[in-house]
Each structure stands twice: as structure tokens, then as C-alpha cells.
Amino acid sequence: MKGSWRSRPTGSWFSRVWRPWVSLSPFRGRGRSINEPKPVGIRDLVASPDEVRIRPERRWRVIGAFFLLLFLILVGRLFTLQILDYKSSVQAVDLNSLRPTTIPASRGLILDRNGMPLVTNVTTVEIRLSRAEAALYPPIKGALASLTGLSVKQINSDLDNLQYDPYQPAPILSNAPASEVEFIQLHPKEFPGVSVLDVSARSYPNGGNVGSQILGYVGPITEAEIKANPNKGYQTDSTIGKTGIESFYEQYLRGHDGTSTLEVNAYGDILGSVHTTAPKVGDSVVLNIDTGLQKALDGYLASDILHVRKTPDPTNGVLPPAINGAAIVIDPNNGDVLAMSSYPSYNLNSFVNGLSNTVFHQLLGEGAFNNYAIQGLYTPGSTFKMISATAELQTGIFPASQTVDDTGTFTVPGCLEGNHGCVFHDDESVGAGRIDLPMALTVSSDYYFYNLGYLFWAQQSKYGQTPIQNVASEYGLDNYTNIDLPNETEGRVDSPTVRKMLHAEAPKAFPNVSWYTGDNIEMAFGQGSTAITPIALANAYATFANGGKRYEPEVAAAIINAHNHVVVRYQPRILGHVDLPASVRDPILQGLEGVVENPRGTAYGTFHSIVNFSLTSFPIAGKTGTASNEAHEEPNSWFVGFGPVSKPKYVVLCVIAQGGYGADAAAPVVAEAFNYLVAHPIKPISLKPNLSVPVAKKAVKTTKKSG
Predict the structure, then answer these.
(1) End-to-end alpha-carbon separation of the chain, Å?
(2) Topology adopted by domain 99-287
(3) Which residues contact 218 (CB under 8 A, 6 or more apart)?
(4) The whole model's pTM is what?
(5) Per-residue pLDDT, 9
(6) β-pair partners for 239
(7) Distance between CA 670 and CA 654 in Å, rounded?
(8) Residue 539 backbone dihedrals phi, psi, to 5 degrees
């Protein structure tokens, strides 16, 4: 019957649902009823093959899409490596197979104003050892130690030194003796991995002890120096100027290193050289220094200090320690530094031949590496009186012709009796009597300048608190001179502001913060907390000598290349002016001339007993200084002079720390220097020396530090 459940197909939904119900019916017996459906099996639940549509193209599409995706990924990766990342890939390969090494350039020369070499280069022989060979054949270390006298421990230390290029043989012995070099060359099989190399080292034609602090020395570069010069091509085994001209003009002197690209295998073994670029030697620096004068000045200063140490102070019988000193000669008409000496000193050859740590620290403790001409700070004493006299005449506070009665003891007007700082005594027990400004400078009257310091403080409402300090600043005493040498120290001139600053920085060393009349009196004659550098005072007197132009002191005159072409020519540079009309300059000059020419002058006896030329034809003006230090310490000894007076050509200064009286300790050095200068006048500078060095690359002018 149509629609009957019995007529529905076996595989229909109805049968699949109904059959389980029938099979579970309670009316079902053991036998099978004719009309009873068959049991349901797996075949009944799964469609038969003839009922399923066969679709093989779908499978191939899936498989094809999968492989197509892999192919696209592969092509994309190849595109990235070959096209996008080509450069970095090549670099990565090169890094694994190529090793660039540096070929050091020879440094430029340092010449004096006459073209005479002060610093040159010399080729020395260096013994080196391959790290790879030393690892493969350890007995070579013992053989090399036996030949050179070095210990195996030292050789291992050299091999492990990270300062040396790991792909180059490590330096084992510098400046090797010819006999050892010859033995290695005659027995190469006994020294596998040992090589002999010619290297350039600094040489000093004048023995290494002339102008040491000016020239400076070179040494291995430090990690800090590499970081401070990140883009200048320095390597861990580079050398660099450490002090003096070697440091200040490093960018010219160092030259341009060459390169050698080595090919290595996977084990780091060197296969050969791929490409080599030759190094270019550095430019040479021509100095304003005169070698003959420099030698003489070094000798005068050293011998004088040694003499002072053996000569008792005539006032107390104490042997002055004369712990250090400096001497300077400059041209007041352009600022050229003609000579500069510092004591104690050292021999530059020590850094070429090797300096032990013991000797290095000994010299360091003695202060031998300090350039006291630009780094020493000394109380100026009476040399400062020229500054106070300038302030006096510029302001008109006290006429130059007006006299005072120098009794030897100055009592501050209005000061309560018994108060500290009310009475000031001259250095000499007897006063100078009635004197005007020129005579006050000639005899170095403290009384006169006590009075001047008092007058300025008493009339500060009219002249301000710092009229003398302002003039000192115009002369450059509280500023950098901007000399072309590293590590110059800045001076200071005592004042209410400076007093507070010093106290804030070091309360125990400078306990006083207030400023009284007595402080102004002490400042006026160069005492108190005033401390200046020798180069600053020499430049101040040069400013006075030339009529008021303050030049920048200049050690270097020019930079030249190997073709003798001038790369840079340093011209005189004016830093400031001091107003010195005749009404101001003439009375002061008269007093400074009297120091040497007048029998009452403080340096009259010294100069007339030492100089071997006519002071009439070559007159000299100058000023002594005897500056008090701490209690029980000998005073600082100063003398600064210039001549000839009518048209000054030279300013010469000497200072000796704790050396005693200026006329006794410092003045003889200046007198001897003038002996040399009169006998050997300084010649015009020569910028065309005869050099036979490779061509150097042109450089730009160095940037100088400013105050």
C-alpha cells in the first residue's frame, strides 16, 4: 500500500530508525518472522561504492596547491637572500673568510722654527710570534725565550694581549738586537711562526731631554681613548699622542693607516693577502720653538734649581726645597712661544726603549710629567703689582707722581687696635722712605700697595668692589691663555666671589667666606688666594710690553705636508686689549726699568753680575716677586722681564716654587736667557724644511679649546 512503512526502501531514513525499534520489540520470538527485517550492520550504515561519486581532481588540486605554496616560499626566500639581503649576505660570507688588518702609518715629524727636527721616526726591528704556530708547536716559546732572554710567562702574556690584532703575529720583542735577528733568519726551521718586522718608532735627535713637556710622548691607545674617538679609525693596537704637541696635533701627526685584507679558512688559518692599501705618513708640525734657546733654557732652569737647593735663604738660613719650576720665552709682538721649560723633567727615549712601572710611577710622583709652565698655580707676589699699578692709573685713584712715606709698617686707618689684620709689614725691616709709583715698583715697596689696596676698598662706592680684579681679567690672569697644549690650568684672582666659591668647593682648605679690608690689601700686592699660571703672567707682561694687545700664545707655527706645502699657517690671534695710554704705561715702565737699571732696584745686582752684554744698548725692564706660602714654607720665587725696552722682542719669565727670593732664585735664569738671546737673536721662521718623507693627506685646522 502506497505510503505504508512496509513499502519504504531498506536504506531509507525510516527504516534506519524503525528497525532498531522492531528488533527490540517484546513480541519478537526465537525464529524469524517472514516479514521481520534483517539486522542492521556496518554495511547498512555506509554507502556502497556505486552510490558514491568519484572525484579524483579534488585530491590533485589539494596536492598541487600544497607544492605550489612550498615553491612560492622557496622562491621568496631566494629573492630575499639574493636581492634584498645581497649586501648583508656577502658581508657575512666575507666576515667568515676575510680578515682586515691595519698597517700603521708613520707619524709626521715635529720641527723647530728653523726646520731642525725635534721629533723624527726611526725604523727598528721587532720580533713577532704567530699564535697559531705557538699553539701547534709549544716548544717554540722556550726556544724564543732562550734566545731573547724573555721569560715564557712574558711571551704567553704577549700572545694573550687583546691589544694586538688576533690575525697578526704578536709583538714579542721591540728594538731587537741585530745578533738575535740574524740568528732567527739563519735558522728559520728552529723558529716556526717567528717573524722579523721593521717598525717605525719615535726618535729624538737632541737626546730626548729637550723640551720634553712641550713635545710630549706617544703610547698604546686605551679603551677609553678609542671610545672617545669612535669614528677616527683607531684600533686596539694603535698608538696615540698622550701629552704635549703629540696629543694636541694628533689629528695631523697620526697620518692615515693602511689596510691589508687576509683570507682565512674555517679554522682561522691565514691563506694569503687579498688586497693591500698602503699607509700615508702624517703631516709635520713646525713649531715656533728655537732648539738652541730651548736647550739653553732647560739647562738654566735645572742647574739653577739644583743650586738653589744647596744655597741657604739669607734671612733664615733654611735650604729652599725648590720643588719645581718653569721658564718661558715668548715674542710679545705675536704670541709666539720661543721656548718653554719645566722642572722636574724626563727623557722621551724612556717611552721608546721601554719604561718600567716602577720608574713610571716614580716620575709620576715627582711631577716630572707635569708641564708647570701651563699647569702650575703659584701665588704671584710682587709681580702682581704691575696689575695693581695699571688699575691705579686707569681709575686715577692715586696719581703716579704723588708720594707716600714708606715706613715699613702700614696700619689700616680706623682699624681697632689689637684686631687681627690691622698692621702690615714690608718684607724688608726698613721702609723705603718717600716714594712715588715708579720707585715703588723699582724697590718693590709693599707699603705703597698696602695703601693702594686700602684706598680701593675704602672707596668701593666710587670704583666698585673689584677694580683691580677687573684689570687682572683684562690681562688674562683669571682665564685660559688658550695656548695650543693640552691640560692648561685656569688661574684665579682673589675676590669676594672667588672666596665664596673656594669655600664651597673645599671648606676646610678655605674656611673664610667673608671679605675684609685686609683681604683687599693682600690681594693688591699679589697675596691671599690669588694663584696664576706662569704662561698667564708671561702673557700679561707681554701685553704690557707691546702696548696693550693680548695675544694667544702659540707653540705651533704651521702644518706642512711631505711636499713642503703649507697645509695650515697659524696667524697671530688677539684675545683682548688693555687700555695703556702713555699716562698709564710710562710711569709703570719707568718703575720696571728701574728694577734692573737703578742701583736701588731689586734685580740690579743680579743682572749686573750675570749679563755679559751692555744693558745700555739692550736695556731690560722687569719685576721680581717673592710670594709667601704657608707658614714654615719658603716663598715662591719669580722674575719676569722684557727687552729691549724701546721695542721689546722677548719676554722671559721664571718661577721656582718655594725657591726663596725672586732676585736670588728666579732672576738668574732670566738673566742667563737674555745672555743667550742677545748673542743668538731668534731668526724668522722657516716653513720650507728639506724633508724626504712620503706624501701626506691634507687636513683641516684643529679646533682649539676655549676658556
Answers:
(1) 122
(2) Penicillin-binding protein 2a (Domain 2) (3.90.1310)
(3) 107, 202, 239, 240, 241, 242, 246, 351
(4) 0.79
(5) 46
(6) 220
(7) 6
(8) -70, -30
